[in-house]
């Protein structure tokens, strides 16, 4: 039960600088470590992926940890894993590591996280029912990326795929925006061709979520698709929905590779909904048909 | 066709200060005017509520308006209404009025907006089908308030009600977050008792959107409610869904006044969804059943 007895109190120490540095992609790649900020994300990481965590830094002083909430997180982590270290640090040190820490940050092992996610995906692809895939092409905004991972989790998807050039899912702002869902559902990244090849292998049609469609193919309306999916014959069908970039949607070439195009009808005068909301509506209403 | 020929170029003038001041509730109340910021919101205001607009301030110089997009908005406004004034102002002046203007701001008349909204609500309450009401209790965050108005618009609701102590719907950040929907759907504010009285008058049950319910009443699951609403006998039924505060939900007293409690089931490991996403899922999936 390794608790580091020594209080970390120097915000300018090399150690603190190295941890804070993990907010940058380059440092994550170099060190194979990533940051988990804030009580909610750290608590969910402890609950579902404690083996991934190497260290937890929690606010306190010589007398112990600052608050019951933080002490509880530390205790649960120790109960779960013999391999992680708890360090007490001053608020100043914690805030130096991350201004969004709210008193606690954890450091995770990227290879272990990815290995766990890979195993989850393999498990899902062996289910007797079809796999439920939420895919996002070129999602760039960290807040959006986190929101869509959370929506896919809530909708009971088996896997989230970040297709082509997306934001790094280990960006701390992405993790924060998932409110813990990054530790609930596997998220994997791959190129566009690899994605379509994999879906073909899995026997899944890819549905583009797209308002306009192409000149040749008008989108099907989501409620019609749902009516179809509610039919007894389709209850066990899997699905793979591909959402486009938050500003530009999907490009023509990617749309053409999709087997179907689905759009959310607008009933009032609004022109559209944003990516996070659209993804939540489509994925949750699909979940309602299962 | 009143275009003000004189370029506004003094960001420290009284006029500019007075307009910028409309970002504050007090100044709006005192002057009976409100601010509409940015091309998207101003364009939708011009399209659907041009009679509300008194002035439009658009970025330009001695040679005219800055860009085709802005010139197009100004032209449409002039085509629509003989009563509004277009002013060209330097970018510096526009940015002084609002850092979120992106080259254009409009000033609207609060009484005219409210009168138009009141007429819309009266029209809706005379429909032969039931009224579709999206109500929000104590919504405090301007971004959330805007997002839920946009969702209610997309879902074809007839009216949005801000119940009890909500953020001012004329807060510029609310209007921006609606991406124009404030000019598509009437939004009215009232106290909790007035809301329940009005719904009773309309013959509408109020459904609380709530994850937990009370000790005596467990929430019904949204998909079950939708199955019921899809039945032929209920296609013309109206609905009134009441959503709680973004952090605290609905309080017990308000929950007790609702006839039904509805919750969105969670299929994965996520604990909940945020207010904006929950509202979009419930309102849109209800729209799919109509």
Mean pLDDT of chain A: 95
Annotation field: number of helices of chain A: 12
In CATH, what is the class of the largest domain in chain A? Alpha Beta
Distance between the termini of chain A: 44 Å
Estimate the strand proportion of chain A. Answer: 15-25%
Could you give the order of the helices and strands of chain A?
A: EHHEHEEHEHEHEHEHEHEEHEHEH
How would you summarize the topology of this molecule?
The structure is a homodimer of 290-residue chains.
Chain A: E1 3-8, H1 14-20, H2 25-31, E2 33-37, H3 39-49, E3 53-61, E4 64-65, H4 68-80, E5 85-89, H5 91-97, E6 104-109, H6 110-124, E7 132-137, H7 142-154, E8 159-163, H8 172-177, E9 187-190, H9 192-201, E10 206-209, E11 220-221, H10 222-230, E12 239-243, H11 252-257, E13 260-263, H12 275-289
Parallel strand pairs in A: 1-5, 3-5, 7-8, 7-12, 8-9, 10-12, 10-13, 11-13
Antiparallel strand pairs in A: 2-6, 3-4, 3-6
Helix pairs in contact in A: 3-4, 7-12, 10-12
């Amino acid at each position: 039960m390794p608790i580091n007895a020594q209080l970390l109190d120097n915000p300018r120490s090399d150690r603190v600088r190295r941890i804070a540095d993990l907010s940058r992609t380059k440092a994550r790649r170099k060190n194979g470590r990533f940051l988990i900020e804030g009580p909610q994300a750290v608590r969910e990481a402890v609950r579902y992926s404690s083996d991934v965590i190497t260290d937890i830094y929690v606010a306190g002083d010589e007398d112990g940890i600052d608050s019951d909430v933080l002490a509880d997180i530390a205790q649960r982590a120790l109960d779960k894993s013999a391999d992680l270290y708890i360090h007490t640090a001053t608020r100043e040190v914690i805030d130096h590591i991350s201004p969004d820490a709210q008193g606690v940050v954890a450091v995770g092992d990227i290879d272990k996280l990815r290995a766990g996610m890979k195993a989850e995906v393999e498990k899902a692809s062996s289910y007797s029912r079809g796999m439920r895939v939420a895919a996002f092409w070129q999602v760039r905004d960290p807040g959006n990326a986190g929101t869509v991972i959370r929506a896919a989790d809530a909708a009971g998807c088996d896997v989230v795929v970040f297709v082509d050039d997306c934001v790094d899912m280990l960006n701390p702002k992405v993790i924060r925006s998932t409110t813990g869902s990054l530790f609930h559902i596997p998220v994997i990244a791959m190129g566009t061709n690899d994605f379509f090849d994999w879906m073909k292998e899995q026997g899944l049609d890819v549905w583009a979520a797209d308002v306009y469609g192409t000149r040749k193919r008008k989108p099907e309306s989501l409620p019609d698709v749902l009516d179809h999916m509610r039919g007894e014959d389709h209850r066990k069908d899997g699905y793979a929905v591909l959402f486009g970039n938050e500003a530009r949607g999907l490009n023509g070439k990617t749309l053409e590779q999709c087997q179907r195009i689905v759009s959310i009808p607008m009933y009032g005068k609004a022109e559209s909904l944003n990516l996070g909301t659209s993804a939540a509506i489509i994925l949750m209403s699909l979940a309602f048909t299962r």
